[in-house]
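Lecture notes, part 5. Sequence design as translation. It can be helpful to think of inverse folding as translation between two languages: the language of shapes and the language of residues. The source text, in structure tokens, appears below.
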């Protein structure tokens, strides 16, 4: 993508081609303009177009250019925050509504994949959140207790069972969440885009919105090649926001995250790791994640940016950490590498904003955006179609609040990840 192999790495290599799109040219009028072609914007566009609305998606670069094309592909239920924390944070009504919506959100993803025949390596066999030491196990035990009190199919597995399911003895236990699964994320984004186009939406790539004005009866959005007039605007630019509605970006602290993918491991080695093909990550603060793709490549990730000194540090760490977790992979080379920016909010909860008259936005997914982005996009479509009142949304409306000490925190995350990986022994 954009001739930079470190933006989308393996996903760019193995995804089916994107649907054919072109930059916006001239002037068009639509009911809804969607800014940003990630999961949020594409899901909104698909659901709006299916209901008969005239929609134009304006994407600054390419479909899935932001977090949607770069992530690990773990289709998780819920958020990072503990379930009991949400009602405390958002109030009983919104907290419960968000828990219900996000607890069931992986189903929305896998249903869309099936309904639209999206070829994105979808596997729904759960995810494993792996415990590091006694502290990690205590955290997972509490998470299991809170989810099970809500009837969710999550299970605490002991060390032996975790070793059987992961192929490593490195963990004290794990949380198996049956609701979850994995996808090839760029392929999912491209599939959503194709479905939206088939339903009648127009998607314009290489079309960054560079200026917006409220003309009273409609919004006018300007790109280098043309303008769109729209009654409603959905801002789905999230952590990759550029140029317009900068308050969306100002509220988020970027946390970098990278992935390294091996060559296909071959049948015997691939069978020795995650034999049931769950996706996995651990309870460390500077966490690691691992999963296999359909060709048997191991995708191994952690916090950090593959730029400057970080490139060599994180690569070296990746080799050491992988060999420690899976000694059978010692000497296996990484074939591709890529990284992206996760948008973190101060309290780790997502946001719903009204950014202007008939301008709405969801953002701040804190590294949980595949299933949430899909269902939040659907909520925005329902809101605009009038089938969901604003009072029925899963989040209260809030004003964007600039993150305090944002630049310092971003530096801290990037440099801190390098230090943690240099220290290495703890990986
Ligand atoms: C490395 C990494 C790993 C992750 N792992 C996981 C995971 O395993 N599971 C999970 O659930 N989540 C994960 N996430 C989070 C998830 O990927 C994101 O939360 C999600 O993709 C956000 O989707 P979105 O549509 O809201 O935004 P994005 O996908 O970021 O899309 C925003 C789009 O807006 C466009 N844009 C910005 N400004 C303009 C403009 N002015 N005009 C036009 N277009 C514009 C951008 O080019 C971009 O394509 C991860 C994120 C990263 C970066």
């Amino acid at each position: 993508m954009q001739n930079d192999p470190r933006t989308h790495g393996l996903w760019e290599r193995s995804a089916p081609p994107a649907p054919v799109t072109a930059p916006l040219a001239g002037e068009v009028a639509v009911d809804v303009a969607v800014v940003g072609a990630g999961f949020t914007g594409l899901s909104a566009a698909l659901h709006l177009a299916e209901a008969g609305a005239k929609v134009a998606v304006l994407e600054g670069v390419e479909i899935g250019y932001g977090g949607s094309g770069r992530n690990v592909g773990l289709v998780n239920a819920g958020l990072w925050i503990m379930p009991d924390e949400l009602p405390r944070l958002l109030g009983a009504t919104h907290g419960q509504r968000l828990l219900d919506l996000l607890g069931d959100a992986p189903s929305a993803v896998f249903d869309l994949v099936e309904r639209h025949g999206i070829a994105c390596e979808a596997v729904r066999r759960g995810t494993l959140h792996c415990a590091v030491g006694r502290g990690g196990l205590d955290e997972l035990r509490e998470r299991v207790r809170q989810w099970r009190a809500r009837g969710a199919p999550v299970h605490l597995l002991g060390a032996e069972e975790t070793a059987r399911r992961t192929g490593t003895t490195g963990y004290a236990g794990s949380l198996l969440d049956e609701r979850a699964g994995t996808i090839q994320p760029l392929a999912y984004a491209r599939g959503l885009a194709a479905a939206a186009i088939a339903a009648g939406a127009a998607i314009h790539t290489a079309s960054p919105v560079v200026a917006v004005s409220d003309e009273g009866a409609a919004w006018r959005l300007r790109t280098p090649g043309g303008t769109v007039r729209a009654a409603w605007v959905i801002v789905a630019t999230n952590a990759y926001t550029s140029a317009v509605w900068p308050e969306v970006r100002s509220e988020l602290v970027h946390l970098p995250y990278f992935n390294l993918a091996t060559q296909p491991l071959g049948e015997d080695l691939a069978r020795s790791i995650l034999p049931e093909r769950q996706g996995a990550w651990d309870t460390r603060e500077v966490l690691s994640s691992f999963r296999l793709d359909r060709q048997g490549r191991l995708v191994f990730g952690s916090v950090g940016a593959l730029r400057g000194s970080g490139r060599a540090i994180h690569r070296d760490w990746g080799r050491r950490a992988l060999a420690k977790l899976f000694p059978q992979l010692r000497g296996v080379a990484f074939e591709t590498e890529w990284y992206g920016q996760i948008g973190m909010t101060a309290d780790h909860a997502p946001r719903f904003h009204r950014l202007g008259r008939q301008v709405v936005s969801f953002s701040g997914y804190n590294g949980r955006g595949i299933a949430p982005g899909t269902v939040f996009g659907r909520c925005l479509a329902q809101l605009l179609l009038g089938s969901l009142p604003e009072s029925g949304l899963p989040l209260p409306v809030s004003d964007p609040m600039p993150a305090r000490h944002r630049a310092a925190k971003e530096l801290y995350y990037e440099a801190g990840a390098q230090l943690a990986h240099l220290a290495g022994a703890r990986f």
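The translated text above is only one of many valid answers, since several sequences can fold into similar shapes. The first strand starts at residue 26 and ends at 35.
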